[in-house]
Design a protein that fits this description.
The chain has a single domain, classed as Spore Coat Polysaccharide Biosynthesis Protein SpsA, Chain A (Alpha-Beta Complex). The chain starts with a strand and ends with a helix. The strands form 3 sheets. Strands 1, 4, 5, 6, 7, 10, 11 and 12 form an 8-stranded mixed beta sheet that branches. It has a two-stranded antiparallel sheet with strand order 2-3. It is built from 8 helices and 12 strands. By secondary structure, it is of the alpha/beta class.
Length: 225
């Protein structure tokens, strides 16, 4: 039997770094909000895929203002987030009816420029290797801050990590039963704490995370071009 696919869209951001009263995921790029673009990409990637959107309870009215084809979609479930991203993902996982062998993606709501190709490549790799983490090479020169100075490091030894991070259900379920740690900066680090190896796949330059006004301007240019 073919594995079921799920995508947990984590939408817990605020507009603080945007100098905006509107949470960043609800800001407009092109004709729609950032979060609407993101959800649509996953729905379009597979006609059976189930989407779980995790938002703060305080943002529920903003959620209801999204297009009906998102809010009332039969394959979209909305749930409330927790105080931390870790708790929000845990809440999202509790909403899915999955079994061993099914695949769960976890994606930032503010990455609306992801392509269907990257989504599908990550699901395929996770099916084969148990997990898939998109990452891109570092193009800037890096320096490591030391106690008294800074030093050059080889950028070829580093990667910039993106989402969606996709896992077999049994792996991510067990990972999120661990006690929370400050070292959990993304889902891969949570899984890695189980002693599991993470599998990197090639990410996309355009799969940016919109956190600043400059990111927003770039996203609008890319969507409208």
């Amino acid at each position: 039997m073919e594995s079921k696919k799920f995508a947990i869209i984590v939408a817990g951001g605020s507009g603080s770094r945007m100098n905006s009263d509107t949470p960043k995921q609800f800001l407009t790029v092109g004709k729609h909000s950032i979060i609407a673009y993101t959800i649509s990409k996953f729905l379009q990637s597979d006609e059976q895929l189930q989407v779980i959107v995790v938002i703060p309870k305080a943002h529920e009215l903003l959620w209801l203002q999204l297009p009906n084809e998102i809010v009332e979609h039969s394959r979209v479930t909305k749930t409330c987030g927790g105080e931390t991203r870790y708790q929000s993902v845990t809440n999202g996982l509790s909403c899915i009816d999955a079994k061993e062998g099914d695949l769960v993606a976890i994606h930032d709501a503010v990455r609306p420029l992801i392509s269907e190709d990257l989504i599908n490549r990550c699901y395929s790799a996770a099916q084969e290797f148990g997990n898939a983490i998109p990452a891109t090479p570092i193009v800037e020169t890096l320096r490591k801050i030391t106690e008294s100075d800074s030093e050059w490091v080889n950028r070829a030894d580093f990667r910039s990590v993106q989402t969606p991070q996709i896992f077999l259900y049994e792996i991510i379920k067990d990972a999120y039963h661990q006690p929370f740690s400050d070292t959990f900066t993304d889902d891969a680090s949570v899984v890695e704490a189980l002693g599991m190896k993470v599998n990197l796949v090639e990410g996309e330059r355009n799969n940016i995370k919109i956190t600043t006004q400059e990111d927003l301007k770039l996203a609008r240019l890319l969507i409208e071009s």
